[in-house]
Amino acid sequence: MGPGVSSPAMAGYALGPGGSVIPDSDVKAGRASTGGSLTVIESRTAGGAPLHVHRREDEAMYVLEGSIWAKCGDDRFELEPRSFVFLPRDVPHAWDVVGDEAVVLILTAPAGLELSLEEFHGGADRADLAERYGIEFG
């Protein structure tokens, strides 16, 4: 936007336990609800993500339950409940659950991860997704 032009003000909101900004999902904040500023997803999962690189957003995770490992560049981190990891854009990273299941908050800035994940889990072509969302799988 140019000088003197402002974006429309976003409305604050709150979600109760189990609430979501996208029906039938665990998305707590996304492009539409934050004006594009961030995505927050509460993920109860038995698996993580293979090696990949985000070209457009930084990613972070906060472990609520269980344990995960995360690899970022040459570093590997073991994360237990109440642990946090930051995974900057342009750095290859991967993560996975240690044990049966974990619950993590996944945050990205700017927003958009929720859109690519929805398409990925819906069976979209991986190469097409990668090109449209600036993600490289490796």
Describe the 3D structure.
- It is a single chain.
- The chain has helices at residues 31-34, 113-121, 126-133; strands spanning 27-29, 39-45, 49-54, 58-72, 75-79, 84-87, 93-109, 135-137.
- It has 138 residues and is an alpha+beta fold.
- The longest helix is centred in the last third of the chain and has 9 residues, at 113-121.
- It is globular, with a radius of gyration of 16 Å.
- The mean pLDDT is 91.
> Major sheet, described briefly?
8 strands, antiparallel
Span between termini: 35 Å
Q: Determine the mean pLDDT.
A: 91
* Record field, number of beta strands: 8
Low-confidence stretches are none
What is the helix fraction of residues, given as a range?
A: 10-25%
User: So what's the overall shape?
Assistant: globular
Report the radius of gyration as a whole number of Å. Answer: 16 Å
Total helical elements = 3
What order do the SSEs take from the amino end to the carboxyl end, as H and E? EHEEEEEEHHE
Structural class: alpha+beta
The portion of residues forming beta strands comes to 35-45%
Summarize the structure.
The chain is α+β, with helices and mostly antiparallel strands. The protein has 3 helices and 8 strands. Strands 1, 2, 3, 4, 5, 6, 7 and 8 form an 8-stranded antiparallel beta sheet that branches.
Keywords:
alpha+beta, globular, 138 residues
Q: Secondary-structure blueprint of this entry?
A:
Layout: E1 27-29, H1 31-34, E2 39-45, E3 49-54, E4 58-72, E5 75-79, E6 84-87, E7 93-109, H2 113-121, H3 126-133, E8 135-137
Antiparallel strand pairs: 1-2, 2-7, 3-7, 3-8, 4-5, 4-6, 4-7
